User: What shape does this take?
Amino acid sequence: MRKATFLALALLLAAGAAFAANELIVTEIMYNSTEADDVEWIELYNNSGATLDLTGWYVLDDNLTHTQMALSGTMAPGAVMLLVGTETLFTAKYPGVTNYFPVFFQQEGATWALGNGGDAVNVFNAAAELVFSVTFDDAAPWPTAPDGTGPSLLLVSNNYGDFNDASSWTVGVTDGTPGVLTQTVGNEDLSWGLVKGLYR
Ligand SMILES: [Ca+2]
Ligand SMILES: [Ca+2]
Assistant: This one.
């Protein structure tokens, strides 16, 4: 193992204390895709060491009076699931990606969407406790490329201190990687799989 990689691992482990406190976190957001009708999605990751029973859990944007998007089923440690805006748009753009919940926050205009000028993603557990929250913006210091030019808004894998800190997020690849975790900055030698392995 190269020395630089070892240092990166040590830094990741040091950051793990704050990270591990968050059982279910958002790792990637597509809030303004290049299509006229945004193909929106939110990527959720089981960051705990245990299987999560998501019965009763739900997601909202910044308007807590909007229709709650009920999560369901279970997620194994390290599992990734998507909350998708509109199923038909999503499956047309990302054929083969099937790890999404069977509720759709944009569908047929009935519910809500992620604002192109900034919004929030709030995850609540079955006790209606806020367990994850990010309020993002489309302007600096937040990454601006996710605002309609193609890339997603991507959680920086080695900085989990404050999800509302713009520096915790970066620019994903064009069209993002929905349903698949991707390592983002600095440590190209590290995969998310390796990072997850370290926490087990
Ligand atoms: Ca949008
Ligand atoms: Ca991803």
Q: What stands out?
A: Residues 31-32, 38, 40, 113-114, 116 surround calcium ion (ligand 1) (CB under 6 Å). The helical segments are 3-20, 87-93, 192-199. Residues 18-199 form a domain with the Immunoglobulin-like fold (CATH 2.60.40.1260). The chain is about 15% helix and 30% strand.
